[in-house]
Specification:
- With 326 residues, the chain is mainly alpha-helical.
- It has a single domain, classed as ABC transporter involved in vitamin B12 uptake, BtuC.
- The chain has 13 helices and four strands.
- Strands 1-4 form a two-stranded antiparallel ribbon. Strands 2-3 form a two-stranded antiparallel sheet.
- Strand 2 and strand 3 form a beta hairpin.
- Helix 2 runs parallel beside helix 7, helix 4 packs antiparallel against helix 10 and helix 8 packs across helix 10.
- The mean pLDDT is 89.
- Keywords: Cell membrane, Membrane, Transmembrane, Transmembrane helix.
- It is a multi-pass membrane protein.
- It holds the Pfam family BPD_transp_2.
- It comes from Promicromonospora alba.
- This is ABC transporter permease.
Length: 326
């Protein structure tokens, strides 16, 4: 009798442990399964050069998504990061070619442009009480329009300092190094600073955060400004790889950034998310694109697949929130 009762209890314990493992590391498990499936489908997938290529491809989206993590953790959404990335890279190139300032100043100008664009969105959300969806949708249009105005619709050459971001250092691609450094910084901000804890508090419950003495408006402006800085760096990474700032660069990248954050376990309701999960989410998207390219799948179908992945990720987030409430 005791043995019979103990067996189902042990099975429940195993299932519970497995469920906890998958819920906490579902994105990582999915990434490993995806890599195994692609290796079986095409052995060229797990070669050294191809893995480096995946890292380079993931770098821009990952850096963009690190900034998006701040926003989503704080309970917002930023639809403008792709356009802000393009504007920042264009401002950097314009400062160098038209204003004749030193190359290092072009990087400073790009980062400042991103921070300013993000802060404007944050001010609209914090003080104008605009939904983040609306405020950043407006910035998406404004930033893309300013990019076209600055460039007159034509690519502009970047400085050597920006081009360095697309090169190699000691044989290691600089975009991968930037990805690692920015990821460590973002993780430190979220987990080891007061403003990081305030982001989680604001995303979890705005009113409770306000009553506890947190300056919610300041946090919101800071969050969007940080997202703008990360978008600027992502834009310059892309420009460095292309050796020019393109007026239509990073179009649609905001969707990939949101998808990477959600795939990594963050909640669109706010208050939940981590940088390591976002990195895994960005790698999942890069692996899918790379694998489909190796399998000679049409780019049109690739868009369909990525769209389905985004839909599934958001669906999982909705189910996760329902289960949490119950």
């Amino acid at each position: 009798m005791t043995t019979t009762t103990a067996a189902p209890a042990k099975q429940r314990s195993v299932r519970s442990a497995l469920g906890s493992l998958l819920s906490g590391n579902g994105a990582l498990v999915g990434l490993l399964v995806l890599c195994l499936a692609l290796y079986i489908a095409t052995p060229a997938f797990l070669t050294g050069p191809n893995l480096v290529n995946i890292g380079i491809q993931a770098s821009t989206i990952a850096v963009l998504a690190f900034g998006m993590t701040f926003v989503i953790v704080a309970g917002g959404i930023d639809l403008s990061v792709g356009s802000v990335a393009a504007l920042s890279a264009m401002a950097s190139a314009w400062i160098f070619t038209s204003a004749g300032l030193p190359g290092w100043m072009s990087i400073v100008a790009g980062l400042a442009t991103g921070a300013l664009a993000g802060a404007v969105s944050g001010l609209g959300v914090a003080f104008g009480r605009l939904p983040s969806f609306i405020a950043t949708l407006a910035m998406l249009s404004v930033a893309r329009g300013l990019t076209l105005v600055l460039s007159d619709g034509r690519p502009i050459a970047t400085s050597d300092e920006v081009s360095f971001l697309g090169s190699r250092l000691g044989g290691v691609p600089v975009p991968i190094l930037v990805l690692l450094v920015t990821g460590v910084i973002a993780s430190f901000v979220l987990n080891r600073t007061v403003v990081g804890r305030e982001m989680y508090a604001v995303g979890g419950n705005v009113e409770a955060a306000r009553l506890s003495g947190i300056r919610v408006r300041k946090v919101l402006v800071t969050v969007f400004a940080l997202a703008g800085v990360y978008a600027a760096l992502a834009g310059m990474l892309l420009a460095g790889r292309l050796n020019s700032a393109q007026p239509q660069a990073a179009s649609g990248y905001e969707l990939d950034a949101i998808a990477a954050v959600v795939i990594g376990g963050a909640s669109l309701a706010g208050g939940v998310g981590k940088v390591s999960g976002t990195l895994i989410g960005a790698l999942v998207l890069a692996v899918i694109r790379n694998g489909l390219n190796l399998l000679n799948v049409s780019s049109f179908w690739q868009q369909v697949v990525i769209g389905l992945v985004i839909a599934i990720a958001v669906g999982i987030d909705v189910l996760r929130r329902k289960n949490t409430r119950h």
